[in-house]
Known about the structure:
Layout: H1 27-36, H2 47-60, H3 65-69, H4 80-90, H5 120-135, H6 147-172
Amino acid sequence: MVSKQPHIIIQDTPGIMVPGEHLGGSKAELxxxxxxxxxxxxxxxDPPLLAAxxxxxxxxxxxxxxxxxxxxxSEPIKNAEELFLRLSSKIGQxxxxxxxxxxxxxxxxxxxxxxxxxxxxxxxxxSQFFLKQFRTGEFGRCMLDSIEEYEETRDxxxxxxxxxxxxxxxxxx
Length: 173
């Protein structure tokens, strides 16, 4: 309890923080990395977006073990939509084509056009499967941050610390 008049109670919840410039990288990218490592709950993030970012990250770092683990074949994956299509066929969710239009209040099935999902449920399940494989270590170890970013952040923090120490010394003098 912080105050009796007015009655104020503050509850501390672990893991709450506001990403800032001092942590390095863009705030949005930092949020995605935190969500990938489950520091931000999936219901607050967009699993298909996280899976798309993870796909690009793994391909950029040439960590292609996910292709074998998820049995995705040897053909390179061009984009997240292709990943979702391949994964959905592997995890028992074949593409569904419904030519019949349904009204907005029907529960879920929409037309698949040009091999892209319009049914968000398939996209969600495929991305959650991909994220789970990553988070349980099935793809091997992967560092989400780059060494260069770490070094830049460290240098900025050291500069701030030295600047703060300089101000304290001038005040004491």
